[in-house]
Amino acid sequence: MLQEFRKDGLNAPLNAFNILEITENSNARRLSHTVHRVLKYLLKSPDVDITSYPHRDDSAIQRPPPVFKLECGPKHITLQYLLGTVDIPEAG
User: Fold this and answer.
1) What pLDDT is attached to residue 20?
2) Structural domain tally of the chain?
3) HEC-encoded secondary structure of 27-82
4) Are 38 and 64 contacting, i.e. CB atoms less than 8 angstroms apart?
5) Quick check: is 38 in a domain?
6) Is the C-alpha dihedral spanning 78, 82, 84, 88 positive or negative?
7) Residue 33: other Cβ atoms inside 10 A
8) For the chain, which terminal residue's Cβ has fewer other Cβ atoms within 10 angstroms, N or C?
9) pLDDT tens digit string along 70-82?
């Protein structure tokens, strides 16, 4: 699978246009998270009493949904391998 992925990468390498396109497609997701981060810093300021703010439950203040939520728990433990081409676990 790794060799196939590398072969596909050689046949269609990334160029400046691809990188710009990927960046443009991710801007909307990054913007909502950036806005939330700035609001969080402002609302956690010592001068702000969020408990008395009447709109503290507004959806604009709530954390945006994750972009790519990773599964977690015992069924989703990842193994780390020394080499990407050899199936030898690093730790047992």
Assistant:
1) 92
2) 1
3) HHHHHHHHHHHHHHHHHCCCCCCHHHCCCCCCCCCCCCCCCCCCCCCHHHCCCCEC
4) no
5) yes
6) negative
7) 13
8) C
9) 888 888 887 776 6
Does the pTM of the predicted model rise above 0.70? Answer: no
Q: What is the mean pLDDT of the chain?
A: 81
| Contact present, 69 and 29 (Cβ < 8 Å) | no
In a domain, 78, yes or no: no
Specify if 75 maps to a domain.
Answer: no
Question: What is the per-residue pLDDT for 90?
Answer: 66
What residue numbers bound the domain in which 46 lies? 2-64
Closest CA to 81 of 92, 67, 69: 92
In a domain, 43, yes or no: yes
